[in-house]
Write a structure and sequence with these properties.
162 residues, mainly alpha, 2 domains, two-stranded antiparallel sheet, 11 helices, 57% helix, elongated
Length: 162
């Protein structure tokens, strides 16, 4: 599937009201297997390595266990890792000092994939209840991640009245 990120952002913005209303209603009636089904279908079409917009445009939080694990992998002190790669954001969380992520290579591969932050491991949350529990996050992610947008569109077309 060809990914046009400009169109994605525009479509997500146009559908934001509709999707917000849908997420509010759907949380009570869509079973988790519906989310899993849509997740699997979306990722059968979408190749993250062709996109990597999450790594280029959004930054994960680096929690203490992430910092410890990654600095160990890189064989540097945690303080040096923080100084070189991280900053504190407005919420008081450690995030990447710059975007795109400093661990994203030219081919969109993560240089620390096996040790990546927990936020990266879980993103884009299309296979968990976070998809409905945090509708603002889901709506924001739909503008950056084709998989989130696709899962939303698929779920809206499914019939869960039965």
């Amino acid at each position: 599937m060809e990914i046009n990120l400009t169109d994605l952002k525009k479509k997500a913005t146009e559908k934001q009201k509709e999707n917000a209303a849908y997420l509010q209603k759907a949380a009570k009636k869509i079973p988790m297997q519906g989310i899993f089904k849509a997740h699997e279908a979306a990722f059968s079409e979408i190749d993250c390595l062709k996109c990597a917009n999450c790594c280029k445009s959004l930054g994960p939080r680096f929690k203490t266990p992430d910092i410890t694990r990654i600095s160990n992998k890189l064989k540097i002190k945690e303080a040096d890792f923080i100084e070189k790669y991280l900053k504190v954001d407005e919420d008081g969380d450690y995030v990447a000092r710059s975007l795109p992520c400093p661990f994203l290579d030219q081919e969109n591969y993560c240089l620390i994939y096996e040790d990546r932050p927990g936020d990266c491991r879980k993103y884009p949350y299309t296979d968990s209840d976070v998809f409905f529990k945090r509708p603002k996050t889901t709506l924001a992610n739909a503008a950056y991640c084709p998989a989130v947008f696709t899962v939303l569109e698929m779920l809206k077309k499914m019939d869960y009245k039965k």
